[in-house]
């Protein structure tokens, strides 16, 4: 056996234990150890039944994703599982932690399954752009039926032990000791002469499915998981299970799996899996940096952002004191929070007790003195440096030593905010994205004086409230919004040059963004950008005449976006559905004429390049300046904060997939047309010159 798979026998029961920390993934040593152990148990005439279990915090959590893209070393997982299928003695799988992917497929190649009460099982391969490639699409429908199998495989969701028992995926739930009860279960089977109950020999129950079932399922899935290839392949594989004998079904599954694993989508989704985890590693931060205890939080500002921020902490069981300057605003904020929990209870997302418990954790105050004992304060007040200074001076006076003072600013300089306090080392930016209780991204903005403890505590806290924390340096717009500038600029220029709002939004939606830039402006409100451009003009910034040329006209016509029932689009009362409006086309044409811009047809490809490549170019500058730690962090920002399509892995992953030479060529072409706003970033030029990609950084 390999050192990761232990084999022992006691009283006629073979006990096979996997020990491959941290999650017992099916690396090559584990696969070969399992093959040896099951062969030995099958040959050993003393052995009457077999138990498969795992050491550590979880049963096998899947194939070893780090081995993907490298030559597969025999035995492959399907080989191991078919060997298990041929074993002539009952095999019991003892499941704890998260039996996922290849782990659940291994458990399905056992004949019986017992689970710890807190165990969860699932086939999350679809989230890696894959499908269960070791028989899961063929065995699972045979155990729990086609529809339940499709739900698990296409959603990739985890199923709790109780539900797994209910649907027949596990036979028993352990009461005290999982291993002991698994051995007792095996002993019972041996004593009763029970034969191996092979999933592969069970029939697929698809009688109730009418002829159109799978096509309807495909259509519904294509809507729910727009643009993803893997969910469709999952459906194809499960459909094969209803049409083909087991062995041929395995072949059909294998064919689909091989196609997916080399696909750009799967590479992108696997990239994000690791980038998501890598983001929490802050370069240069000693592992043993102390973490400050955050037992209570103060939030200043009870508007949409403030209430949303508060909800994140309440959901994590952390008491929140919400501070406003007027009672009416405070009451509104508290009502927003309480209604949120009532709404989640009504939707069955929370039990009544959970909803009440969360809502009870928030209190309101008009008095800064009530922040004297909190461990962390987050301000979400109006984006004005003067107001932020007033707030942070008060916080510096009232908060206890060691309290973390955070700003949710999205545009202002965190160092300038920290400078008005006597404790700049305790000041950090915690930039939430709206709606704050939904968006997973949290930019953790490290000020020049932010100390390691505050940074480490902020990153840990991000995970605790269900966010993905990404460290950003101080600059205008940090990572995401800084990149967004070029994106918004190009959207405005494309309008003037001849692309309609609908064409731009459709091209970008087709690319995979959740929403196009024009519709997004209507959602955010055109007056936001209008006010910023006005402020910049007042302070003498040199803003090109084309920037905001259309948006400013629309604002002056009272078209502020969804909030005023019309912006770039028209909106029927109570609807958010954008309706093209010929009046806006006239405004665009007038603005173009005044600027002497000749309008013409623009291809969808160019629209996508003009919008996405500025992201890549600005990101290269951000990396060079050390504002972001690594390309993967920037991908995590854009996928979790701006709706960049998961199956393209983020702007950096996408640029690598296109090929940096092609991206640079295009940027140079646009530079020749539009000047130095398209000046290629030196890092991009260097990578191309060295024949490297962002992934090499
Ligand atoms: N392979 C390799 N490393 C893995 C891994 C895996 N499958 N899963 C986790 N890790 C690493 C992870 O990178 C991190 O490393 C550490 O373990 C702890 O993970 C044939 C083809 C199991 C729920 O998709 O969902 O089977 O950063 O921080 O929050 O059909 O990990 O410490 O160096 O996430 O407690 C299918 C993926 C694979 C499960 C635990 N399985 N993993 O969450 O810890 S494809 C999955 C998870 C497959 C078959 C197909 C989670 C977790 P480091 P963590 P966690």
TrEMBL record:
GO molecular function (one): isomerase activity
Record keywords, A-Z: Fatty acid metabolism, Isomerase, Lipid degradation, Lipid metabolism, Lyase, Multifunctional enzyme, NAD, Oxidoreductase, Peroxisome
InterPro entries assigned to the protein according to its UniProt record, in alphabetical order: 3-OHacyl-CoA_DH_NAD-bd, 3HC_DH_C, 6-PGluconate_DH-like_C_sf, ClpP/crotonase-like_dom_sf, Enoyl-CoA_hyd/isom_CS, Enoyl-CoA_hydra/iso, NAD(P)-bd_dom_sf
Subcellular location: Peroxisome
Pathway: Lipid metabolism; fatty acid beta-oxidation
Entry-linked PROSITE patterns: ENOYL_COA_HYDRATASE (PS00166)
Reactions accelerated catalytically: a (3S)-3-hydroxyacyl-CoA + NAD(+) = a 3-oxoacyl-CoA + NADH + H(+)
Taxonomy, superkingdom: Bacteria
Coiled-coil residue spans: none
Family: Belongs to the enoyl-CoA hydratase/isomerase family. In the N-terminal section; belongs to the enoyl-CoA hydratase/isomerase family.
Protein name per Swiss-Prot or TrEMBL: 3-hydroxyacyl-CoA dehydrogenase
